[in-house]
Amino acid sequence: MTAPPDESVRAIIAARTGYGRLLAVLAASSGDLAAVEDCLADAFERALTTWPQRGVPDNPQAWLLAVARNRLRDHWRSAAVRLNQPLDVERHTPVHLDEIDVEAIGDKRLELMLVCAHPAISATAHTPLMLNTVLGFTADQIAQSFAMPTTTMATRLTRAKQRITQARIPFVLPDRSQLPERMASVLEGVYGAYAIDWSTTGPESRPAPPEGWQLAEILAEVVPDDPEVRGLAALVGLAAARRPARYGPDGSFVPLAHQDPSLWDGALIDRAHDHLRAAHRHGVLGRFQLEAAIQATHCARRTTGRTAWQTLRDLHEALDQIAPTLGSRTALAAVIGETDGPRAGLVALDAVCTDHAHASRFQPAWALRGHLLARLGQVADGGGAGYRFTMGDRLTFRIDGRYMHFTEDGGNAVMFGLSLGGVFNR
Q1: pLDDT (tens digit, 9 = 90+) per residue, 153-175?
Q2: Which of 202, 205, 345, 384 is most buried when burial is the number of CB atoms within 10 A of its CB?
């Protein structure tokens, strides 16, 4: 056991990073997703209350697995289950739980993601369910990404989990012939994982790469001949490559245009370019390839020293043609503001807000509007009293009276965030 505070914090972060892996393993063994979530939550609560006093186990994930496994065993033995659920010998026999070795098992997260994308589950719940179960994002975080109320998202997630149990959906990899019909939802889930991770993490060091990036690489290994899978791997890789420059020494957010390209991870950029070249060989263009090309254009500043705004506009217009979303159209308005000026950007943004009912709840659209108005030297009606809103924990915008305050060059920061987050807002 180890006890230093800094080590304890790192161990807890490492354990939480493995949430999806632990959930997938236990759910694959029991088939009861809701019960496994409750048991894992209990295990994490016990860890947070006992580790600071007793020290952190040398293998935090094994400790969490053991506690959750015992809690699941107690759940099956409870009167509520014995009296109200029919006996399922395969699922309710606790012996198989003892055979789970957290060090020996493979990564079951892909299987769980494919379960979440099963045809028996409502298509509108596929991506939210993956983000919640496989990657541990909260209903509130997911609801913000979909620009909908948290209560609506929570209800959708609950119903989807109940459907998994009721339909007895198996936690196994489907036949490869069934992969294409589920792959679109899986790709959106992985994409969303990195988008939310980008908006909710700060400059602190991480014990492991973001799970969205890890899952994108896993998908590229499983289906290497799918150009959109390769495009997604390139997209999250290019975004991850810029993370070292995203925050200053004081922890403040650094807009993309002000980042030092020498701090970007060249190895990740090269790896992403390999994925893009592999996708290009298939000659079939898709959304994730276009989004990756947008990120590659930004990363090209590492060698050219400038941002090719017209190229970015061409790519964003192509993206809007094949995959129009609230996020992608708002990002296009931001780029138009760079190529044609802030007034043209506002005209494009007004069209977006007219066409999308959820635009009034989409914070990046408000942020972009304030930025464009500030460039025109105009004021924005803040409704009198001051208030503020955020894009994640670090990027905050404030409205005082009738003035909207943004960091310098905030439009680039907003546009970059939108280029990652647009998939949810149809």
Answers
A1: 999 998 888 888 777 777 666 66
A2: 345
Residue among 68, 27, 3 at smallest CA distance from 172: 27
Q: Which helix (H) or strand (E) segment is 258 a member of?
A: none
CA dihedral (54, 55, 57, 58) positive or negative:
negative
Contact present, 414 and 391 (Cβ < 8 Å): yes
Q: What is the pLDDT of residues 334-358, one digit of tens each?
A: 999 999 999 999 999 999 988 887 7
Q: CB of 57 within 8 A of CB of 67?
A: no
What is residue 267's predicted lDDT score, i.e. its pLDDT?
Answer: 95
Look at the block and give the residue holding tokens 């496989």: 134
Mind listing the pLDDT tens digit for each residue in 70-120? 888 887 776 555 555 554 545 545 444 454 454 544 566 777 777 788 888
Residue 398 forms beta bridges with which residues? 388, 405
pTM value surpassing 0.70:
no
Q: Which two tokens stand for residue 381?
A: 């009606």
Question: Which of the pair, 180 or 95, is modelled with greater confidence?
Answer: 180
How far apart CA 161 and CA 143 sit, in angstroms, is 17
Closest CA to 295 of 421, 416, 145: 416
- Which residues fall within 8 angstroms of residue 262, CB to CB, at 6 or more apart? 302
Q: Which residue type occupies 421?
A: G
Rounded CA separation 243/237 (Å): 10
DSSP 123-169: GGGHHHHIIIIIS---HHHHHHHHTS-HHHHHHHHHHHHHHHHHTT-
Helix or strand or coil: residue 395?
A: strand
- Residue 277 burial (C-beta neighbours within 10 Å; 0-12, 13-18, 19+): exposed
Instruction: Report the share of the chain in percent with pLDDT over 70.
Output: 71
pLDDT over 70 at 378, yes or no: yes
